[in-house]
Specification:
Order of helices and strands: HHHHHHHEEEHHHH
Low-confidence stretches: none
Number of strands: 3
Mean pLDDT: 88
Structural class: mainly alpha
Number of helices: 11
Length: 278
């Protein structure tokens, strides 16, 4: 009975992950596609470490939980059939809803705590980008201001009119897509993954704060750089850094910088442990 249940859970989980990843790729959400691999890998790793929970005979789902999980998965399949844009919030919510539905079928409402780390990771995978939608205009304005001040501070003749950052020979408009809120959400999720998989004894709020600020600042520099490219009439490079592979490189840079910071935190943990041991 257990082996048959596990078999079907694996089949359904594989189908849901494949469906979500296929939609992301088909609709052109490349950045979220590659970030999804990181989050799914983290969840898979945690599930493998804790797979013995499901083998315990006393841990099972009741009828209500099974029905609720089945209906949730049916809803995901129904909604997925109608997704036609990469901006559909459902694509970001689907991983968490999938994890919740599978958990209900596997262990029921009363035992969801057994998979709280996996569910938290899936929640921060895409849900924050939906919850922060009302903040896009505010963050966009903030990004324009910081891009303006960064150029002004180093001596450029720059002005700002609303969300326009202008130099004497050209200007750029900072819109919602350039706000950096997406990068901030990605790094927030990555910080949660790190804290759950590689716990640190240091201040958890500091880790979260550094992740979000890192995503914001790196994007501010990107916007300032694009303003300089437009002013220099290098529209080819502007397109590369705005829409092409350059935008992904900037995201990777933010991830690497946060990774270095977290590595420093882990090394600090190690030194503190050695000091207390002595």
């Amino acid at each position: 009975m257990f082996k048959r249940k596990l078999f079907w859970l694996i089949i359904i989980a594989t189908a849901l992950v494949t469906l979500n990843m296929t939609l992301l790729w088909k609709l052109g959400d490349v950045a979220h596609f590659w970030m999804s691999i990181v989050f799914w890998f983290a969840v898979g790793s945690l599930l493998w470490d804790n797979h013995h929970f499901l083998k315990q005979s006393e841990i099972k789902s009741d009828l209500l939980s099974t029905v609720a999980g089945t209906l949730l998965i049916a809803f995901i399949l129904f909604k997925s059939a109608g997704v036609s844009s990469k901006f559909d919030p459902f694509l970001r919510l689907a991983p968490f809803l999938s994890g919740l539905g599978l958990s209900l079928i596997a262990v029921g409402f009363q035992n969801l705590k057994l998979y709280w780390r996996e569910l938290v990771i899936l929640f921060f995978h895409g849900t924050p980008s939906v919850l922060t939608l009302p903040l896009v205009d505010f963050v966009t304005s903030l990004t324009a201001k910081f891009a303006y001040y960064s150029l002004w501070y180093v001596g450029f003749d720059v002005t700002r009119d609303g969300n326009y950052v202008a130099l004497p020979t050209g200007r750029v408009l900072v819109n919602g897509g350039c706000s950096g809120i997406e990068a901030m959400n990605y790094l927030l999720g990555l910080a949660v993954v790190c804290l759950l998989m590689f716990p640190t004894k240091q201040n958890k709020a500091l880790v979260i704060g550094v992740a979000v600020i890192c995503g914001f600042i790196i994007n501010v520099f990107r916007v300032a750089g694009m303003a300089l490219l437009v002013a220099s009439h290098r529209l080819d490079l502007f397109k590369y850094w705005h829409e092409g592979e350059g935008s992904l490189v900037v995201g990777m840079l933010a991830v690497v910088l946060f990774g270095l910071f977290y590595q420093f935190m882990l090394k600090r943990d190690s030194k503190l442990s050695q000091s207390s041991g002595n």
